[in-house]
Write a structure and sequence with these properties.
This protein is mainly alpha-helical. Helices cover about 75% and strands about 0% of the residues. It is built from five helices and no strands. The protein is elongated.
Length: about 170
Amino acid sequence: MKGNGALQIIFGFFLGLVVVAFVGIGVNTFYPEPSFGGEYSSSVFSNWRLITGIILLVLATAILVISLALPAHQAVITNGLLLGGVFTMIYAVGMTITTDQSIWRFVVVAVALAVTITIGYLKFAKPWRAPAAAPAAADSAEAPNPELAARLSQVEQRLDALRRALEG
């Protein structure tokens, strides 16, 4: 992060909140809650909550995948979308938990868990493989790549700044 790290964190968090609000309002606009008229019953409302939870789960997964697809240099937007996807996933699970259909409730929560673990692994724990080095000429020693050295130095500076921030 550059000199305005706190502002970037606040912006990313706010973007996440706006994403979940946008998704929630969009789903409720195009798939509204059943009315309390004559046909209203507990099972109708439970079915609506289950279907809404599934729609939210699909949209949360799409948002999380989009956050992975963005380039690393757009970290603030990527992290904001990642938070928005996580918040939408929480909304989906919360909506589904209140239904009275325990099998579907379990399926939706299991899918949410699988998606969350997969996205977390791909975002934070995926093994980094170094690109295969080109074979060096037999008569010359391989010189260090200055661009790679500069990037490594930048990463080290960021990690050091993060360490200092976490320590106090």
